[in-house]
Amino acid sequence: MNKTENISPFVNEPFVNFSLEENKQAMEKAISIVKSELGQNIPLHIGEKKVFTEDVITSINPGNLDEVIGYVSKANQALAEEAMQMAVSTFETWKRVPARDRAEYLFKAAALMRERKHEFSALMILESGKNYAEADADTAEAIDFIEFYAREILRLDQINETQPLTKVQGEDNRLTYIPIGVGVIIPPWNFPLAICVGMTTAAVVSGNTVLLKPASTTPAIAHKFVALMEEVGLPAGVINFIPGSGAEVGDYLTSHPKTRFISFTGSKEVGLHISKLAANTSEGQIWIKRLIAEMGGKDGIVVDETANLDAAAQSIVASAFGFQGQKCSAGSRAIIVEAVYDEVVEKVKALTEKLVVGLPELNYPAGPVIDKGSYDKILNYIEIGKGEGTLLTGGSPAEGNGYYIQPTVFADVKPGARIMKEEIFGPVLAICKASDYKEAIEIYNDTEFGLTGSYFSSDQNRIEEALETMHCGNLYINRKCTGALVGAHPFGGFNMSGTDSKAGGYDYLLLFTQAKLTSRKL
């Protein structure tokens, strides 16, 4: 690989159509294969070393609590320090590897993941509780991130040819995007492959080395990615895999003087804690740590009386209950103008009641939530909701040997209610009435978050007003507020939704690099 022109333009990985019997059978076969390999001991990766520890994270299938996905070795501070020193040492060689060679590892990884697409999806179905389509979309997005960021580093590497600086007589001026150092990658459990892969590959293709601390509920799928990168020949020590406690290992590494950046996706509370730790300067630290954070949302869909009401209702239900509402982009609020309120509410209720809850490996539309903590928290919010609105459907645990909750809809919720304000991260939708579209937008904006939003209308003047006044990082018109595509919908939010990192966009790799200007007198 010598020239970027030899690389085909980026295109999104297509989704698999599971209504076709051959695709359904292929996924069932992959699930069977993955199930036969469950229960293994999974090591830490520190450079070339595979470290097995007595203290382990036991990964459980949230849809079948009797099924152990794997026993994942757990790092302590001593092992985290060893991994840090390995990453620091490896950075000295990795940063000198040409961008085209770093990109080549990613292109190989994307090709291999594409070949094993159903395998990756099957493990997610079992470990995180996604149905076939949700897991397939996650794997497709992971492939997209790898492909997109590989091309991006090649673009940045050629910036002086494609976007040269202003010429000054007697000078040769060049801008180079160089890596910044060792980073700590802390991905979430809700997109346990896509976001983990995107955060990690963006950092390493930019020339950095990383310490990857996966979510404790989904460490097995993260390890499958790490093993893939090892298989394609990525040098040992570029990605160091260190599952562990956030309080013990996460805080230790965030505070470490050799940590140059932290890339985090998760809750507002944890993100703010990391921000506070990262802002402190440790002894021996010679830089301001960089934080790339995506911290959730309380996203909403606004519907006015000129909208296509069937399309709006379908999008509300898809946005609220896709992957059981466990998305930072989930549309957990619907704000509907009074003139069409009753009609939309009835449509949403009817569509929600069609969602059957069951085992993810059998591809039910709705599955479990991730763990006991989430299960208890969501059920508590449902009890709060019973005092804040009219329960239309759901409102109880669902049957099954897992963390199953019925998709739940509350109507007639006041704008200031807790279930309208607080991120629940589960299958709970709050519906609020507005007198007109202006009030609906005001209610939408009345939140500390600002990640995604949707506006349904056929009035172009109103749409223009919504585009200008609805305050969020990703605003969609006449479509659902979930399902951002790499390259098409750069993703990141405002306010307490994070640092607006715009993952999957043309600015993202700049967060993992620093621009060095060199000016040579001729």
Question: What's the main sheet like?
Answer: 7 strands, mixed
Give the low-pLDDT segments.
none
Helix content: 25-40%
- The side-by-side strand order for the widest beta sheet comes to 14-15-16-13-12-17-18
Name the beta content range.
15-25%
State the distance separating the first and last CA atoms.
31 Å
**Number of H- or I-type helical stretches:** 16
* Chain-averaged pLDDT: 97
CA radius of gyration = 23 Å
Name its key features.
7-stranded mixed sheet; 16 helices; RocA; globular; Aldehyde_DH_dom; 5-stranded parallel sheet; single chain; 522 residues
Summarize this structure briefly.
This protein is α/β, with parallel strands linked by helices and 522 residues long.
Descriptive account of the structure:
The protein is 39% helix and 19% strand. It contains 16 helices and 19 strands. It has helices spanning 21-36, 77-94, 99-115, 117-128, 132-157, 159-162, 194-205, 219-231, 246-254, 268-279, 309-321, 341-352, 372-386, 418-421, 437-445, 460-469, and strands spanning 40-42, 44-46, 49-51, 56-60, 68-73, 171-179, 182-186, 209-212, 239-241, 259-265, 290-294, 299-303, 331-337, 390-393, 408-411, 428-434, 452-456, 474-477, 513-521. Strands 14-15-16-13-12-17-18 form a seven-stranded mixed sheet, with helices on both faces. Strands 9-8-7-10-11 form a five-stranded parallel sheet, with helices on both faces. α4 packs across α5 (132-157). The radius of gyration is 23 Å and the shape is globular. The model has no long low-confidence stretch (mean pLDDT 97).
